[in-house]
Amino acid sequence: MPGNPKGDRRERELVNRLADAGFAPMRAPASGSSTERELPDVICGNGEYGYAIEAKSSAGDPIYIDSEEVTDLQYFAEMLGLSARLAVRFDREPWWFLAPADCHRTDSGTYRIKLPAARSKGLRVDDLTGESKQARLGELDSID
Amino acid sequence: MPGNPKGDRRERELVNRLADAGFAPMRAPASGSSTERELPDVICGNGEYGYAIEAKSSAGDPIYIDSEEVTDLQYFAEMLGLSARLAVRFDREPWWFLAPADCHRTDSGTYRIKLPAARSKGLRVDDLTGESKQARLGELDSID
Question: What are phi and psi of A47, to 5 degrees?
Fold first, then answer.
């Protein structure tokens, strides 16, 4: 994330949290990936679960993610056999992980995640390794 | 690969070749991955096959890869559900992909790949997508 020191710091924090939880994480290069699609911010796996992650942080406002970014994330995830997740980090909150299908979309298709939705529908890092909680994501009705 | 412009150029070339062959590739960041293990140089997948790749190039001399680098590669590959491959590039040769188990190891455990071995045991980029040729790797006897 060039020009976004806080986002960059948050992303390193995310990588460390994933490593602490037993995942092997890898960040995307900052730029120059030489292919046209946008890459995930982080990929990780623990031998059982693997994720391609788009990470966004916010002081408190809703977090918006362009639909094209999510499309690219899902494409890459599918190509690598990983699950696509949006990781959102509000100040004084843990990272919350959401499946794109569980997120609200605006009329233009943009993904919008507010803190209450992140809390109610998201999983924490440590829950990413648990199959039962993992399954939860698909079972919940979509809320805003 | 800081301080290695040619290696860096070769690695970008590899990423482009993989993309041309239908893979979604991602390079590791140049540094600052924030975990202790070394990351693969490139990971890629096409929805069917996925690889974690350590890439090395040489003008003509044998290519040596530390056993620890390969151990880290195999660890990461296993965590992400990918196959570990050593990609070697000699001047005026295509990239050759070898499974670590098919490579000669020196007495100290270092992997050593000479051009004739790369040619006889390696797969080309386009062969990485073919199941039958893929299986070849495991069937060949180890040669030096």
Answer: 90, -15
